[in-house]
Amino acid sequence: MKRNYSNKILILLLLLFTAFSCSETKESNPAITAHQHNNEGKYTCPMHPQIIRDKPGTCPICGMDLVPMSSSNELIVDSNLLPLLKPVNEQVISTMPTITAESGTKIHSVPVQGIITYDTRKQVSISSRVAGRIESMYIKYNFQPVSKGQLIMEIYSPDLAAAQRELIYINNSDNNAAMLQSAKQRLSLLGMQPAQIAQVIKTGKPLYRVPVYSNVSGYIVEKNVANQGVASSSSSSSGGMNAMDGAASTATTVTRQPVVNQTPVVTKEGQYVSAGEAIFTIYEANNMIAAFSLAPPLAAHIEKGQKLIFHTVANANDIKTGIIGLIEPVQRNGENFTIVRVYLRNTDLQPGQLLTANIPIVTTGAYWLPENAVVQLGRKAVVFKKEHTVFIPKEVQTGIRANGMVQIIDNIAGWPIAKNASFLVDSESFIRFTSNQSK
User: Fold this and answer.
1) Which residues contact 348 (CB under 8 A, 6 or more apart)?
2) What average pLDDT does the chain have?
3) Which of 49, 65, 77, 112 is most buried by a 10 A CB count?
4) d(Cα 277, Cα 128) in Å, to the nearest integer?
């Protein structure tokens, strides 16, 4: 009896101990509870979680406002911060000052660069009238200046020597004036000058070297080099160049100016030439072209017949005027631009001289931004529009550039735009911008 009673007491004590242990287990771990309580009321930096403070403040590293920490050691992010957590190639966080685009009617003077080159419409060919061998060559390089009457080369021709002996024989053996005149005419057609023919008759000896003279003043170039500088030569009935527009009813002459390259001539002494073979081309010295390169947006404001004022780069006081005679769109090396040509007559300008012209442009209803506010990414232009507290890159269409301003074709009225776009470009990533139309 006593033994059973002792066993019951023992079981009762065991049950009480078990219940007490379970109640201890249900309670929180003192260390975990202390950690949770320690995190309550704590503040940390979203960018630098190692910074923990007991009260609100700013991060000593980046200066951002500290945010509360939850009991699970997770940051409590304010909804106002969510827009700031986007990738840096979609938006930029900055305190950059903003500007708005200017608009209205504006007058700009746009400087353009040009160069003096040859007028390929005014050219003369130098050819040999007889077949023979070049005994002497007095032209050393292409685009060498020559004067009218200057000696170009001397040619030995067996046919010309035979014709001279015939003239001497007729002059010495017969007084037939008709035959003598016929012999003189034959020599004249072969390229001999009247003074040379008279010398042959006087001395009774043939001239084995027949000189070839330049008949105009200008710049001489080998025929094959001159052909390389001409794209096509479909001349109009008037021989001039007309504007390349859809309203032109006559054929136009589209030429590419030769490059001023003073290379040695290929034609050498001892070389044989055929009768009638063109050897050299001379561009007349008193006819030049002032050629200016324009971007397509600027060329849209230019018309044929418009007066252009320009000066040489070396002397800004040397003011010249001319009339635009040809507007030629050109595509070269994957780029589109326009060549504007002013034809000059009786000018003292020399080929290769650099020019500067100022073209007045009047625009209405366009928007203008400083060049610093527009960044060029390849062929696309980008501005940074401020939305709330961040800057969003936006693609825009640009027009002409003048006086440090860029014409914006898109409607950007009222946009707050970053004053310096280059400062906001992230060098570590490509900007993903949106076009103005998707605004």
Assistant:
1) none
2) 75
3) 112
4) 6
| Pick from 240, 248, 243, 239: nearest CA to 326 | 243
Work out whether the CA dihedral 49, 54, 59, 61 comes out positive or negative. Answer: negative
Q: How far apart are CA 59 and CA 44, in angstroms?
A: 8
SS3 readout for 393-411 = EEEECEEEEECCEEEECCC
CB 240 within 8 A of CB 300: no
Cα end-to-end distance, the chain, whole Å: 95
Where residue 427 falls among pLDDT bands split at 50, 70, 90?
very low
Is pTM beyond 0.85 here? Answer: no
354-397 per-position pLDDT tens digit:
999 888 888 777 788 988 889 888 778 888 888 887 888 888 88
pLDDT digits (tens, 9 = 90+) for 23-33: 444 444 443 34
Give the pLDDT of residue 82: 54
Higher pLDDT among residues 138 and 378, named by residue: 138
Per-residue pLDDT, 267: 82
